[in-house]
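Lab notebook, design round three. We kept the backbone fixed and only want residue identities now. Task for the bench partner: fill in a sequence for the structure below.
Input structure tokens:
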């Protein structure tokens, strides 16, 4: 297997993967969305709330704030163990992180942001500092304690480490120069919405720097003479694109997804052995 990093930013990763089946890559993608755990607020205790928002509304907003979770993966118990503890009201330190928020309005409106949350664990804090939570005017006050735990996207999307996880085939475009000559093929070059083709020295060329932008719409096939251009895809080569929430790094998202998938397969094999299959 060969993996090439095409683009990498703090919240965006694009990989070109060769030597993998569609079924395996799609399994990894689905595990990323629904199984890789992150930290998110699950319970909120209100001591005071005289803002314009109901308690439930504020609690919902807090739950959707991404929390840094790279270290939390190893420091806290599994989502399944901690969900049961939370349902019993047992907010133990090996399961939950406490985030406190307190503020009041003044003569001018005061906005409480995500960086006003005070965490009991410096490794678990809002991924972004200026997410607005609530605006207060005099004499409104808010005082609360929020409890965050590890969870999985299949339980609630707030725990998913990605906002987008998609894959696409790598295009394979063949141009038959004997059939595609002169001005008759110029129209397919001009019609390509992604500018994948170039017309050079009377011939249609595929631009290597634009090949991955091809959407395989096959407009070029329809406009050029029959058989002049053939658009297909590589059977074992894909582009995987991840847009991250900021809770986990791309590296940890991918490594954790593979670890989880591997464990599921091991459990499946073990169950088969127990059944004598």
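Proposed sequence:
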């Amino acid at each position: 297997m060969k993996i090439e990093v095409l683009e990498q930013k703090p919240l965006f990763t694009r990989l070109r993967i060769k030597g993998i089946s569609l079924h395996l890559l799609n399994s990894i993608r689905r595990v990323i969305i629904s199984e890789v755990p992150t930290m998110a607020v699950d319970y909120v205790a209100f001591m005071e709330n005289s803002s314009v928002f109901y308690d439930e509304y504020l609690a919902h907003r807090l739950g959707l704030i991404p929390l840094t979770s790279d270290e939390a993966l190893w420091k806290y118990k599994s989502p399944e163990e901690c969900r049961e503890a939370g349902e019993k009201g047992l907010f133990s330190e090996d399961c939950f992180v406490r985030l406190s928020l307190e503020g009041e309005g003044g003569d001018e409106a005061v906005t409480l942001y995500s960086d006003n949350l005070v965490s009991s664990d410096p490794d678990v804090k809002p991924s972004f500092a200026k997410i607005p939570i609530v605006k207060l005017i005099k004499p409104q006050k808010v005082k609360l304690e929020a409890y965050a735990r590890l969870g999985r996207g299949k339980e609630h999307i707030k725990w998913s480490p990605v906002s987008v996880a998609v894959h696409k085939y790598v295009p394979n475009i063949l141009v038959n120069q004997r059939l595609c000559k002169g001005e008759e093929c110029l129209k397919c070059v001009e019609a390509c919405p992604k500018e994948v083709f170039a017309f050079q020295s009377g011939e249609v060329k595929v631009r290597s720097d634009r090949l991955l932008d091809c959407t395989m719409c096959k407009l070029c096939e329809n406009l050029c003479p029959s058989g002049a251009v053939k658009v297909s895809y590589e059977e074992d080569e894909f582009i995987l694109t991840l847009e991250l929430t900021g809770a986990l790094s791309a590296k940890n998202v991918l490594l954790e997804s593979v670890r989880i998938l591997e464990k599921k397969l091991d459990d499946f094999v073990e169950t088969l052995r127990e059944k004598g299959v």
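Keep this in mind before ordering anything: The longest helix spans residues 250-274.
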